[in-house]
Amino acid sequence: MQGELIKRAVGLMENGTVNRVLGWRRGEFVYDITPSVFSDKDDLEKNFVYNEFCGNNLSRYLVQESEKEGKIAVFLKPCDTYSFNQLCTEHRIKRDNVYIIGIECYGKTSADLLREKGISAILDAKNNNGTLIVETVYGEKQIPMMDVMAERCVSCKSKKHVIYDELIGEDGGVLDSHRFDQVEEIEKMTAEERFNFWRGELSRCIRCNACRDVCPACTCEKCVFDNPKSGIRNKGAADDFEENMYHIIRAYHVAGRCTDCGECSRVCPEHIPLHLLNRKFIKDYNELYGPFMAGAEIGQVSPMCDFTKEKDAEPSIVQKGGAE
Amino acid sequence: MQRIGVFVCHCGSNIAATVDVEAVAAAAKKVPGVVFSADYMYMCSEAGQALVKDTIKNEKLTGVVVCSCSPHMHENTFRKAASSVGMNPYMVEIANIREQCSWVHKDRELATQKAIGLMQAAVAKVQLNAPLTAGTTPVTKRALVIGGGIAGMQAALDIAEAGFDVDIVEQKPTIGGKMAQLDKTFPTLDCASCIVTPKMVEVAQNEKVHIYSYSEVTDVRGFVGNFTATIKRKARYVDEKKCTGCGLCTEKCPMRKVPDEWNMNMGKRSAVYIPFAQAIPKVATIDPRYCLHLTKGTCGICSRVCEAGAINYQAKDEFIEEKYGAIVVATGYEMIDPGAYDEYAYTQSPDVVTSLEYERLMSAAGPTGGHLVRPSDGKEPKKIVFIQCVGSREEDSCKGGKPYCSKVCCMYTAKHAILTKDHYPDTDITVFYIDVRTPGKLFDEFYRRAVEQYGVHYIKGAVGKVVPNPVTGKLEVQGADLILNEQVHIDADMVVLAAAIEPSRSARQVATMLTASMDTNGFFTEAHAKLRPVESPTAGVFLCGMAQGPKDIPETVGQAGAAAAKVIGLLVKNELTNNACVAHPDEWMCNGCSQCEKVCPYGAITYVEKEFKMPDRTKKMRRVAQVNEAVCQGCGACTVTCPSGAMDLKGFSNSEIMAEVDALCR
Questions:
Q1: Is residue A252 in a domain?
Q2: B414: domain range?
Q3: Is A98 helix (H, G, I), strand (E, B) or coil?
Q4: By a Cβ cutoff of 8 Å, what residues of chain B touch chain A?
Q5: ipTM of the predicted assembly exceeds 0.90
Q6: A258 and A156, same domain (yes or no)
Q7: Mean pLDDT of the B576-601 span
Q8: Is A116 found in the same domain as A78?
Q9: What domain range is A120 assigned to?
Q10: Under a CB-based contact definition with an 8 Å cutoff, are residues B281 and B270 in contact?
Q11: Full-model pTM
């Protein structure tokens, strides 16, 4: 597939449709991937990579890239297209400056996930109809893909590209992913158990800000955590609870805008299941206001920004006198 | 650095009995930035205000904190006082140590601690306060009245009398409302149509009043003095300007089996109809649900017989937009459907009727021409049972019951009894009641007349069951007499249900459009139950009639006049001072995401592409929010929606609020 992608990207540059290509750049190791903008054909042919480790959601880089001169091509997996739409809804991406090539995705893995299964010294990995064939220094190993897939891919919400200019491969449908099962488990806990669960998970936070920096919903010109006037700016927290608050504030900030792409959990060096915070919000939205998927289409209004809905769970605007 | 003065009020014993006001004043002296503090018996008195003013001058204060009652009470008083000696009014903060402290606590020590906390929070806010200046906007000198019943008509006439244009929007084909459907009015027994139809004519003839009948308000934007309303003129299929109201079409229309709403569905009308003889505007309306041409494409008789050529089957709903300075809500009421109270057999027998249906049966313009007969067999009823409080004063909301008293039922039932006895003296009338409520001028006398002069049987007690007997055609009423403590069985010819009154079904939609609040029962709430009874909490929106709560005609008319007076008071002003506490964006932080625009209920936020000089000396076009300060009402919805915190509210900035919270948590 990688070859096909490179061929198409080069083609688009040659025929003048785009002057740059946003994709993934080869690293020292096969799992060592960096999002990258290619403006040179030779560089693209040599260093562009697409493999089982290319989990990065490229949408957020378009906030800056679509501002620049000329059109840019981007490769988006189905879940990335939701982020793209959401950013367009928020006027963060200039749609006209982007050429979207939708690509199929059957789930991504990572070196960490493979190492957890005892597979290290990885040289290459290929998904062969659901079996991951890993070439290592110690020889070839085979493992079912499901066993080493990222959680967000195991509970993939959609194989459908909600926006694209052209597709390479097949378009799929929205899936019944059971992605809220884990949230339900946490909901079943007592308040104390839940508090302890999150205190435990969040206690590992080293406040590297990676979750924020990778999040396609966190594209503010100036983040409140960097803004001296916001009153909550801090890098080194006064106590460990403040660290916890960072994640809670962030979850609130992306509520109604989070497309559940799972990048936050992917990049967390401490393996905190941050996506579960966001998913709780999404689940609540679905239950209180009816099914809502951020990024499903451009221009949709999040339930939290829509006070006129008759089905509003708290129609306080018309019932200031008290709830019914 | 601010120089802040703290003034602690005793409010007689209201505050001082529970809060150690001297301790609060003493604690204030220790707060950084406070250069003066004092306590005083009544800070809002002339002498108290003089203390504030003198101190501002003598101590060169830059900010003032008054620890007293709710800002709703006296914030304005102290802002004016400060302003009179040259201080910006927005440098005055109120710490509410009465409603939120002394009145709700008993422990003096704890209450004092809390009062000190509230004082410190207010000081922390004043530290960050900045002087604000309010702009002004012109007032649109036109009023909108929603609802064309007696309330709406009276309000419109009174406003027009003062020289302002008024539009009445009425959803029915005619104005007049429920009052026009009544037979007589209590306690004087005036003929209702004799007094309401001249009112309708007066409305129609008044050059300042414009009637949009068969219309609905579908959207309201803007704010006090500057509302923009969208009015949907439902397709009438008859040209209002051409129709002469001759009624030929209604006579020739072959579709004559349409339930007549005007007669509470007890009679039939044609598909093209004029609700009643004195309808205003006197124009025909085609009911698209029944018209043979509109449903089946056949017929077309009305268009052939109409000499004025007014029939237009192609008519479409039209939308017009109009600007208004003030809005009067007079959406009125409906009766609940007593069908849920099936023990009264309303759904089982046509001889069980609601009071409004009975009203039509009594009316000379009603389906029987004023001849009181049973709907089932057309015979004159000899025994009638009236059941009070059907759905009123009851908590069983699953049946549509209402916890409140519908207020007018006791009186209209006495009226029904008297009128019936007047016309048919041999009728035997029994009224089952919980209480008879007759507070009103000549009300109790009227009720006593029914009992003493007319011999109406009043039984305190409830009816358990009404059973229609198919053999005798009677309604077997089983009730309890609570005073004699015995069961009562009456074989009645008719049963009349005083069904509870509820707000018009369109009221909620109107409230939502106006962001006017409603109480749990769906009635519009007043800005203050005692002191501002005809104003909605939403500025520029006024209330009258049953929309605000159950009431009789004179009360409604009085309230309509009061609402009109408030409207006139608003419309005579050439301009209104804006709210100074408006939103404003930090353009450098604005992402251009439009979320604030979406949540703004006033449409005050727009987005522009603006050129910015970037730190690296390049220029960049950025999409940023702009607030129209004249339109912004300072609700703050945008500030909490903004993900980056770029939007802030003057006078209630995020940093000011955070400073208050920090001070309270210290």
A1: yes
A2: 335-502
A3: strand
A4: 508, 511-512, 515-520, 525, 537, 588-595, 598-599, 601, 607, 620, 623, 641, 643-646, 654-655, 658
A5: no
A6: yes
A7: 91
A8: no
A9: 109-149
A10: no
A11: 0.71
